[in-house]
Amino acid sequence: MKRKPVLPVLFCSVLAVSTNNLFGEPPLREISGVYPHLTMYNQEGECGTGAVVPWADRLWVITYGPHLPEGSSDKLYEITPSLQRTIRPESVGGTPANRMIHRESKQLNIGPYLIDADRNVRVLSPKRMPGRLTGTARHLTDPTNKLYIATMEEGLYSVDVHTLEIIEHMKDGNRQPRVAQGLDSKLPGYHGKGLYSGQRMLVYANNGTRGQIQDPTITSGALAKWRGEGDWQLIRENQFTEVTGPGGIHGNDDPDRDPIWSLGWDYKSLILMLLDNGQWHAYRLPKGSHSYDGSHGWNTEWPRIRDIGEGELLATMHGTFWRFPKTFSAADSAGIAPRANYLKVIGDFARWNDRIVLGCDDSAQKEFLNKRSFKAERASPVQSNSNLWFVEPNQIDELGPVIGRGSVWLREHVAAGQVSEPYLFDGYDHRMLVIRHDNDSPVTFELEVDRAGNGHWEPLRTLVVDGSRLVIFDTNERAAWIRLRPQQKVANASVHFHYRNRDHRVAENDAKFAPICRVGERPDTSGRVRGNRQVLSLRTDVGDYALNDLLELVPMKTETNVFEKIEQPTTGISVDAASAIIEEDGKRYRIPKDEAYANDTGRICREVATERDLFNFHGTFYELPARNAQGFAKIRPVATHRLAIDDYASQFGLLLMTGLNKQTNDRVIRSEDGKAAVWAGVIDDLWSLGKPRGVGGPWKDSNVKANVASDPYLMTGYDRKSLRLETDQEARVVVEIDIDGTGVWVPYDRFEVTPQQPLVHEFPDGFSAYWVRLTLDQNCRATGSFIYE
């Protein structure tokens, strides 16, 4: 499609300006549920989607920059059912993520805007109400005429929905004291996220700690309440984000009785808090991803619980789409279950015109703390941008195969008789429990389950643990929740759960990837790519090209500095005869290798969603958390592809890759001269590549010293796993596993090895671990290989 000439547009304060389809054209090209012409930009270091809300026959969307309490270049967008988009001239920007529909006045509050049923927009000026607006809730004493808006730095305002009169209850942390009227809050934590009212209180959540940017294991964040006067009162000092109830975006129908839910986490697992009949109850769930774990709070972009027009709600948290019952309460807590894992960073979502539209945080110009030795110095886009992602409701269940990891205690001293918080027990095909302690004598643990989620606990089994113990639960052992109780005082206790669903993927790539070269093939077109303002720039051996938001790839000379310092460095990565070796932050790890990639020069690591890296090595894509979220220790394989990808980057909400053969399909965008091409999809298309697999280990015909543990070798995220061990003399091998990725090592088993008789061991179906290592009791030459299929 040729771009038609754009007529001059006169901007004024009362007319909205359409940014696409000026000539009545039908919606433009869509790939994997993303419409590039809807890409949103700003002039800030990040362009996240703060909220998406259907209202008044339109979809309303706001974006945000990273720390802009008094406004920014971000916009309020109005989108029609035919995907015509208007940038509202009332836009004032900022860092907003609040949204609520006020039923009585028939207005939507989204960010600093109030929008009536006729789509008239009024603005709460950032000069009058400064702060990074994070949550809106119904008023405690005058819900008919007022609402509350909270800020990310603990500020709290009442707003009259008719007059826009503002009352400041608590000072925003960015505001100068001389002009503030509200109380200066002493609530711990910062980086507020959620706000909701009910049961005669206002509940607020934040998920960060000021000044702490590297250690995700410290106490961070807060869940708090407010009863109409004074300061926020602390409920629990952990990282929390979403606060909502069965009334969702409208507020609870029966605020005195309806429950309130809050999602959060700590370094051990997810935390679900429930306010029911004036009492708080805590539950724990597994983490599907560790990319969100930074204690500063930046790594999480407003996980949500939303009504998507189904019998149950949809929740997003730590890389998992969750099935969340509308009736969740203390007497009916069963039914929470994972639906799929995902890679996108999702800020908000809603059902609109029979699809789920997810607002994402796709491509940040500033990589914040996410720097590494094996990433290019300037591989981030020149201009921040993000997009919407439209999916059919059933697609949510077809994304990544579910895994979940988490602990109830991790390196903690536990009193005799102390009961753990309930941990999710149902919803997964494979479930494994590992208990470890430092007591000199065995400890007896009682396992109890709440089968129906009604608060009735009954014994499941009793475990005597001498140092450590591993239990794989039978698939028939089912209950909503599980908890543990030691009979003796426990020193340095760790109780960790590994869950996963069956991975039904095959070894072959989906047909959509056919135009990308297989390893060993010579590409027809290749080149380096980088997001360059509002195009993707491509540099090939025959010239420069640009991909625009109409998905036209046209010759265009690119300024030289765009491609400076974007080449893939190799520092910190090496390969020996046994496997690949990665070194990061003074630690050394091993992952599978593939000899076919010995001469590969393609892109290894790049950020493709804000503060989330892809690691593409020897034919496998991995999800790689930022270093402040424990980095390589918490890596996870996504898919094994055996493709020869030259480069990849994100732009327009898409994942663009180079290194193509002559095949073509609807994912390939070629220039008219045929000399350049890119493949287009979204990062979550990567799940439909082949299931993760690989071969490697810590030793390959290596001289091994007795009683010296090998390097850790990756084990998480793989389906069928086996070990093959060969030695040149009789020896005993100890196989140990790291249960949570941070060095909590426990013995798995011991095996006798005889020369000329290789040991072959298949791990059980329900077995999982983060890392594995081997130790021999004799000096010898040895080969230790793990085969993942």
Describe this entry's structure for a reader.
With 789 residues, the protein is mainly beta. 0% of the residues lie in helices and 43% in strands. It is built from no helices and 61 strands. Strands 1-6-5-4-3 form a 5-stranded antiparallel sheet, with no helix packed on it. The protein has a 4-stranded antiparallel sheet with strand order 7-8-9-10, with no helix packed on it. It is globular, with a radius of gyration of 27 Å. Mean pLDDT is 94; it is low at 1-24.
Q: Strand fraction band? A: 35-45%
Output the radius of gyration: 27 Å
Mean pLDDT: 94
Strand segment tally? 61
Main β-sheet: number of strands, strand sense, barrel status?
Answer: 5 strands, antiparallel
Summary tags:
single chain; 789 residues; mainly beta; 4-stranded antiparallel sheet; 61 strands; globular; disordered N terminus
